[in-house]
Amino acid sequence: MNKIYINGLGCISTQKTFDTLFLEESAVNEVDTILSIHQPVYKEFISPVASRRMAKGVKNGIVASTLALREAQLETVDAIITGTGMGCIEDSEKFLKAILDNNEEFLTPTSFIQSTHNTVGGQIALGLQCKAYNLTYVNGSISFESALFDAKMMMEENDASSVLVGGIDETADYTMSLFRLAGFIKNENQGLDSFLKSTTKGVVFGEGATFFVVEKEKKATSIAAVLDVEILNALEIDKIENKIGSFLASNNLKFIDIDAVVLGYNGDMDSDAYYKILSEVTFANTPQVYYKHLSGEYDTASAFGLWVGTKIIQTQSIPDIVKINTIDKETYKTILLYNQRNGIDHSFTLISSC
């Protein structure tokens, strides 16, 4: 696969990841088991009249995409590709509640129209007056990677030279209550012990919107390059090392060539077993990074992980708040990102400096 270049970033998350350099104002929430977004000033990006009718996922997606386009110094793109696991779940809840409360009569269509998974991509396109290719992937915890893979293929086939790629998910009260009942969310937040040292099931949940402008041509302002993306539905835990080895070999790399590995630890003891093998054996002598203790777990949290990996290359530093071990390197040229959830939907993303 050919390289594509990340030329713009925009991230709205449970941390202050805008108007800052790289997580210098971040802190671990040691109280809540559902993390809320750190809101930007929406009126600086969206008119107050329009903003009132938008769900938070839509607003965060518009802001994050705007920030990415500004950094890339672009006004429009050849394609908009988004990934989301739950879509605009807040409006879905509003519409379903209205059905019950009104005995299926006299329903207004607004919440239904805005509840579809492709609402974010559509609203971004309307704002940009972009009538090009616009697609949303709803594919569990590889939704974002599916969007990134599609963008990469489009450029390799010369169907686009610039693509806006993003991952968006939001929380909603009723859905979160169901997740609690199902045991998906932890009963209590134990701080950092809820992640790397967890002996329980469930996660600390979150939400966010992260966008990237990727382009076919390298620019003087390019931040990083995406070398390869691979997704798998199922992978046995004892096959991980071999699979990563073959993934790296297909890009003419070995384990020793990886300057840092970004792992999707989420605090669920069964899910994290996949990462611990890599931490303790395969990449024991490699700088290791995690991020879901800051963002929370959600279907497109891996987009936040790619933002972290890209910022490491851009700043050539790893903030202490995301370090798993104390190993450092003088330069960070090649970074591997690995994410999965509950042993399914595995993704490998390889990025490098330009």
UniProtKB/TrEMBL annotation:
Entry's Pfam families?
Answer: Ketoacyl-synt_2
Its GO CC terms? cytosol
Highest taxon of source: Bacteria
- Beta-ketoacyl synthase-like N-terminal domain residues are 40-173
Q: For this chain's UniProt record, which GO biological process terms are given?
A: fatty acid biosynthetic process
Question: SUPFAM superfamilies, alphabetically?
Answer: Thiolase-like
Keywords, sorted A to Z:
Transferase
User: Which protein is depicted?
Assistant: 3-oxoacyl-(Acyl-carrier-protein) synthase
Organism this protein belongs to: Flavobacterium aquicola
Give the classification, highest ranks: Bacteria, Pseudomonadati, Bacteroidota, Flavobacteriia, Flavobacteriales
